[in-house]
Write a structure and sequence with these properties.
It contains 25 helices and 15 strands. The strands form 3 sheets. The chain has a 9-stranded mixed β-sheet with strand order 6-5-13-12-11-7-10-9-8.
Amino acid sequence: MSKRRKNKFKVQDDVKVNREALALFFALLSFLSTYIFVIPEKSGIVGHAFFVVVFSVFGMASYALSFIFFWYFVIYIRQSVKIKERMDFVFAVLSLVLLSILFESVRLLFKSKVFGGWIGVTFYPFFSEMFGVSLSFILISTLFLVVSASFLRVSIIGLLYNFVKKLIEYIKNSKNKENLQKQTIETVDQSFFKQDSIKPNIVNRSEKEDKKTIETNSVTTKAKQESLDSKTFDYKLPPIDLLKSDATSNFFTNKDELFKRAELLKNTLGDFGIEAEIKDIIPGPVVTRYDLILAPGVRIQTVSNIIDNISLAMRTSSIRIVPIPEKAVVGIEVPNSQSMIVGLRGILESRTFSSSTSLLSLALGKTSDGLGYITDLAQMPHLLIAGATGSGKSVGIHTIILSILYKARPDEVKFLLIDPKRVEMPIYRDIPHIYNPCTNASQADIITNPREAAAALKKLVIVMEERYEKFAKLMVRNIEEYNAKMIEISGEKEFYIVVIIDELADLMLVVQKEIEDSIQRLAQMARAVGIHLILATQRPSVNVITGVIKANFPARLSFQTTSKIDSRVILDTIGAEALMGKGDMLFLPPGEARPTRLQGAFVSLKEAEKIISFISAQNFPRFYEPMVTEVDVKSNVDLNKNRGSDIIYALKLINERKRISQDLLKANFGGSARATNILSILEVEGFISKPEGTNKWHINFDKISKYLENMGN
């Protein structure tokens, strides 16, 4: 290390030591001055004399001297604060002088007992003669505030701006809450409406009354009112008060900081020879997007190649570059220094959600510019979700379920919940929305066993086919037309069925063929009859999200992934690996070429439990006719029989060929998924094994022979 560099470090260390020493000195002065001015009679001769002199000069303003010393302590102890010795001294003295004059003005204007000292008595007459008593008070007060703000390094304009902004937001939120309460009261009043002529499960209401009801209610109330036509049981949707209010709606809006970061971004690009101009700055709850206009001839790939350098210069991670063709700009999304938690309540209270007529409206989160994002599951019609552990996938699933619970009655929407992990879904087992086509309504529960899940999906395919036959008889094309027809003839409407699988990888490992076949049939045909699928996995590999599944799931939702490969599997493009986690997501709607970045809505487990308790306390009975249980038993027997015959045939094939491979099984069983499944079962049962460090299967011929012999006997 050179001598010059050593001297530089020595100077820096000396400056640091001097700042700390001065900070301690001013802390001592602040303590001593406070002690002297509070109890001067116990401060000794020197302390009492100091009190008399300072008080006679500055009057009541001398009490501010302790605060000035303390502020000097703060300035010197904080290394990030820039020291301005001369200006700080001038502002401190001016603050004391103006405060003394202000106290003298208060004494004369309001006939108070405060005393401005020699300075107040001497200088106040000048102001009163020049500007008058009232105007001089306003002028002195203004000067004191300006000088004090400069000394304290506070922006008065910024404080006023934030105050006015918060006041306006408070007024708007108050109005929105009043409107929401009125709508809730109207909805509850209507839910208590009954008619004596209504029979169980069937309504005998005239077309004229239905038309009048639809015309007199709002769009949201209309969707809910139609559900009352099918049941006599009163049901109340959960109140919004069960959810916590958003902590704050103010996200990264410090304009000076935004401009500084924009300039830093521009300079960083310039250091690498990339000329660009900042067109727009769009702050959001978690990230801020800087829209850049690149110079002619500069490629987007050039910016993407230096993304790590940009992250280093901006002192942050997870920077994402997004081309925006409609604005002819390149967007660079930079995480905010302070993130905002997006609550579910704020999105549910929005006009977009309350005016949505769909029972399957989903409040996913907020966009990068802070707007609530509402989508419709019925239009997707199925959703594929992926994300690494801890990325917010489970919270996202809870948000989806609760969004529907805030829209639909139990006789309008049912949930078929499959949770192989057994830890996320059990809290919903008591709600009347639970559905299982293999059991009676009273026995429906969360499905955790992979084989039970395969049987339920297979049975759901039969439910789908029966609904198609029912719709064909009435010559209607979808569930909306069918339910409208039922209202006309006072018949029983059909409910929507939302299938949610929390971990698809576990099911694919055990019963891949059965699961994949059922999912394929449901995804291709179930939309029209009101059956929608939501599949989630933390392992978005090609073995789990196969080509068959991807082809039938145009809507994709990806949280943070561990690699670019996983991002391509779920979204067909990179970008998910650069997300920040904790609800940061990319949503690809059907028909869109580019995903939209959202910050997922957060809902705690306690909030979910409150909503579930509210729904369960109403004791709403479960209404649906299950499939014949005997068919399910037969399906399981056939399933086990087919599985056993496949294993026996595979073992005979191994004995005959004296080798084993996936290609061999694929050629004999007619499918890679089926071959992979059989290979996994053979390994689990111990018929084959792959020693560590090798890529060749070891075959246990003795065990195979013994097994085949026992099966023969």
